[in-house]
Design goal:
The protein has two helices and no strands. By secondary structure, it is an all-alpha fold.
């Protein structure tokens, strides 16, 4: 029972930190262009780099 006194607040703290990190990522624009990276792999950039 003493373990739960430590584990429950620790779990709530870690969950809160994860929520804060997710909100920060949303506000900083990390999820704005989800299709850009998927389409960028289809383009051949080797010709532009001098090859």
């Amino acid at each position: 029972m003493d373990t739960l006194v430590w584990l429950i607040p620790l779990a709530l703290l870690l969950g809160g930190l994860a929520l804060i990190a997710f909100i920060w990522a949303m506000r900083s624009g990390q999820y704005e262009d989800l299709d850009g990276a998927a389409a960028r792999i289809l383009f051949d950039d080797d010709l532009k780099k001098g090859g």
